[in-house]
Amino acid sequence: MLKKNYKFLIILIILIILVILSIFFINNFTNYYISNGKYLDKTELRNKLFGKLAIHNSLSSPNLLYKIYYNSDNTFTIYTIKNGESVGSTKGDYRIVSKYNKGYIEINYNKINESPYPESAFSKNNKNSIYKTMKNTLGPFIIHDDKNRSSYILEYNSSYSNEKKFLTIYK
After folding, report:
1. Helix (H/G/I), strand (E/B), else coil: 27
2. Which SS3 state, helix, strand or coil, does residue 8 take?
3. Whole-angstrom distance between the N-terminal and C-terminal Cα of the chain?
4. Residue 1: what pLDDT?
5. Suppose 120 and one of 14, 46, 75, 115 were both cysteines; which one would form an S-S bond, judging by CB atoms 3.0 to 4.6 Å apart?
6. Which domain range does residue 5 map to?
């Protein structure tokens, strides 16, 4: 009889541990998903970009940032800002597409302001240079939004880099 009680007690302890671990896992997974936003579909991405100003901080230099205007006629202009002054622009056209119900931006560059940093995809000296194809695909996009702010953050990937990138979009 005493042996059966020990078995029951051990099974009960294991079940309690499993329940606690399950709650912990579900809670962490939910917090991770919520804190990391959600993927935007094609329509949501279009609504977030059209006619808005986006800022991208350079991965090559802390003194560089890019002001990007995604126009409603599917053209864009990227102004390169160095130490607060405009030093050139990149222009092209884009289209927003859907892959697996996630929004992506397919870009065709018409004019590129070359980067002096060899690690940049906008440098002719980079083996993965955009100059080879004059195209890029951005996405999928995850939105990080706070209703009390005048901007939101879009997290995304690029076909030219394995690093995550971030755009600040002003509402």
Report:
1. helix
2. helix
3. 70
4. 52
5. 115
6. 1-35
162 and 149 share a domain?
yes
- Reading phi first (left if > 0) and then psi (alpha if -120 to 50, else beta), residue 30 is in alpha
Following DSSP, what letter does each residue of 64-130 receive, concatenated? Answer: EEEEEEE-TTSEEEEEEEETTEEEEEEEEEEEEEEETTEEEEEEEEEE----S-TTSTTSTTSTT-G
- pLDDT attached to residue 106: 97
Tens digits of residue pLDDT in 124-150: 998 888 999 999 999 999 998 877 788
Buried/exposed 19-33: b ≥16 CB within 10 Å, e otherwise: eeeeeeeeeeeeeee
How many Cβ atoms are within 10 Å of 80's Cβ, its own excluded? 19
Residue 22: per-residue pLDDT? 67
Q: Are 80 and 88 in contact (CB under 8 A)?
A: yes
| Residues 130, 152 within the same domain | yes
Type of residue found at 21? L
Residues of the chain with pLDDT under 70: 1-6, 12, 19-37
pLDDT tens track for 1-17: 556 666 777 776 777 77
All residues at 6 or more sequence positions from 58 whose CB lies less than 8 Å from its CB, including other chains: 64, 65, 66, 120
Tell me the whole-structure pTM to 2 decimals: 0.74
